[in-house]
Write a structure and sequence with these properties.
There is one protein chain. The protein is an all-beta fold and about 210 residues long. Helix content is about 0%, strand content about 45%. It is built from no helices and 14 strands. The strands form 4 sheets. It has a 4-stranded antiparallel β-sheet, with no helix packed on it. The protein has a 4-stranded antiparallel β-sheet with strand order 8-9-14-11, with no helix packed on it. It has a 3-stranded antiparallel β-sheet with strand order 3-6-5, with no helix packed on it. It starts with about 35 loop residues before the first strand and ends with a strand. The mean pLDDT is about 95.
Length: about 210
């Protein structure tokens, strides 16, 4: 993502450097909140920005959640050309740790990028007739496709999902598919710049669905 303004943003699918750089079209789903504290039908939300590089940084929430929220982080600048992803760990009710990670073959020295972070209290709410459900899987998702039952019955919704943990050391991202009224599938997808194996240990996945 880049050039985020009050009315929109630019985005692309950025493949790792060891690949050819060309990717077919995919469906992208996203959330947008103004920076600050929000509340939607009882669910606490906090959105903020931080400059993040390859070192772990502890980011404190401006409020205290009742329990650890689901946290989603997205690089929102392109200060360095190398592809990178965000990593998250140690989510508590008051803080989260975030870093940037490039493909395994690289030296892992990425410059500061502006990262946009959204922390959302887990639970279910209805706002203006739209169901909002937020949850985490616990440490149960690995490189195999896993089905997550989100507990709702919604025919059309927006879904955002992301890793909440960093138990596996290899660079990886979250992929989703097969969104149905009751469930979706999620997988941890490792890149292969240094080695061919893609087995990844189990991670905790956070997710939010918003009915359309």
């Amino acid at each position: 993502f880049r050039n985020v303004t009050t009315t929109g943003f630019e985005f692309q699918i950025d493949e790792w450097e060891y690949l050819d750089g060309y990717h077919i079209t995919e469906m992208i789903q996203y959330l947008a909140f103004e920076p600050g504290e929000h509340e939607i039908a009882g669910l606490k939300i906090e959105a903020f920005k931080a400059n993040i590089n390859s070192s772990w940084q502890t980011l404190n929430f401006s409020q205290s959640f009742a329990a650890a929220p689901a946290v989603f982080a997205q690089i929102a600048t392109v200060n360095e050309a190398d592809a990178a992803t965000t990593r998250i760990r140690n989510i508590s009710n008051t803080s989260v740790q975030v870093q940037l990670e490039e493909q395994e073959q690289n030296s892992q020295r990425h410059v500061d990028e502006e990262v946009h972070i959204i922390a959302i209290e887990t639970g279910v709410a209805v706002f203006e007739g739209k169901t909002i459900a937020v949850g985490t899987t616990g440490r149960s998702v690995n490189h195999n496709w896993a089905t997550v039952n989100h507990g709702q019955s919604i025919s059309d919704y927006t879904l955002v999902a992301g890793k909440q943990s960093t138990y596996g050391g290899d660079t990886a991202t979250t992929r989703i598919r097969n969104m149905t009224a009751n469930s979706f599938q999620v997988q941890i997808d490792e890149e292969q710049s240094r080695e061919s194996e893609i087995n990844h240990t189990t991670e905790d996945i956070g997710w939010i669905i918003v009915g359309d």
